[in-house]
Design goal:
Layout: H1 3-11, E1 18-20, E2 28-32, E3 41-49, E4 55-61, E5 66-72, E6 75-81, E7 87-91, E8 101-108, E9 111-116, E10 119-124, E11 135-138, E12 161-168, E13 171-172, E14 190-194, E15 197-198, E16 216-220, E17 223-227, E18 232-233, E19 239-240, E20 253-256, E21 262-267, E22 274-280
Antiparallel strand pairs: 1-12, 1-15, 2-11, 2-14, 3-8, 3-12, 4-5, 4-11, 5-6, 6-7, 8-9, 9-10, 12-13, 16-17, 18-19, 20-21, 21-22
Length: 282
């Protein structure tokens, strides 16, 4: 567990994150409404974390209406249709940055809004037909080619990353409900869990040995970093640095620097200690 995951668990106690599409798997989870809920409003709240620029985060529909929340090219995209034609809201930016992002999608009366963090965009509907949603898909669907309402999903790939604290109206959509005496949460039951894992887990991004030329691989969340030997750099230690060309005089040792420069260290043969470090900028 990394520090960001621990931080999220401390902020949102009682809600266990879920990892979607871990490694090479495909994941989604579905919930079935087993209680009456307010048809006059549709409010979806959740927190997501990902490095993938495309993926379906949330979807619900009946025979003719739907609400979709997805990532498209790193943008947060919400779409809804209540038999009066689709309305779309898009948040520019790259939200596939491995940070936690809190999102709210609301349809209250004839207003449709998307909020990411503290920023909110509102659009209006006309002639809203109240939907009767009963199935709620999180992270994907079982078949992107047969969603109930055609053209309601554009990403066509499942979400990959972590989701937590998912709510629809006043009901929680818990992936892994906690059994805490005296602590009751109104929720919808799970109808299917397809490969969703408990907690916010990272792929083993070092399993394919991506670091070249003797570099050492370290897993970061769904990514990796290489500690490269002198003379090599870049994401995979595949690029030559200036130290590869032995620029230091007097047989001094060349040490690569993170800013693209290099240090030269040479040693006194008599004193057996470092006399000085000469700095050269590329």
């Amino acid at each position: 567990m990394d520090s960001t995951t621990l931080f999220s668990l401390l902020i949102y106690p009682g809600f266990v994150p879920g990892t979607f599409s871990f490694e090479e798997t495909t994941s989604y989870i579905t919930f079935l409404s087993n209680a009456p809920h307010d048809l006059d409003e549709n409010i979806i709240r959740l927190i997501f974390r990902t490095r993938e620029k495309n993926g379906l985060i949330f979807y619900t529909s009946d025979a003719s209406s739907y609400i979709t929340l997805e990532l498209l090219d790193g943008k947060v995209f919400a779409r809804a249709d209540f038999t009066n034609g689709p309305t779309e809201i898009e948040f520019e930016g790259d939200f596939a940055d491995a940070r936690h992002h809190e999102v709210t999608v609301e349809r209250i009366g004839d207003e449709f809004s998307l909020q990411v963090g503290r920023l909110r965009i509102v659009k209006s509907f006309s002639n809203v037909t109240l939907p009767e949603f009963s199935d709620f898909y999180v992270g994907g669907v079982d078949d992107f080619n047969s969603v109930p309402v055609p053209d309601s999903v554009h990403s066509e790939v499942p979400f990959k990353g972590c989701l937590t604290d998912v709510k629809y109206n006043n009901y929680s959509l818990e992936f892994f409900p906690l059994d805490i005496p005296g602590f009751v949460i109104d929720n919808f039951p799970i109808s299917k869990n397809e490969n969703v894992l408990e907690g916010c887990q990272s792929d083993d991004t070092c399993r394919t040995n991506p670091c070249e030329n003797g570099g050492t691989c370290e897993v970061t969340w769904n990514d990796f970093e290489c500690d490269c030997p002198n003379g090599f750099g870049g994401k995979n230690c595949s690029e030559l640095t200036i130290c590869a060309y032995d620029p230091c005089p007097f047989s001094a040792e060349c040490l690569d620097r993170d800013d693209g420069g290099y240090d030269c260290k040479y040693f006194s043969v008599i004193m057996k200690r470092v006399i000085k470090s000469c700095l050269f900028i590329k």
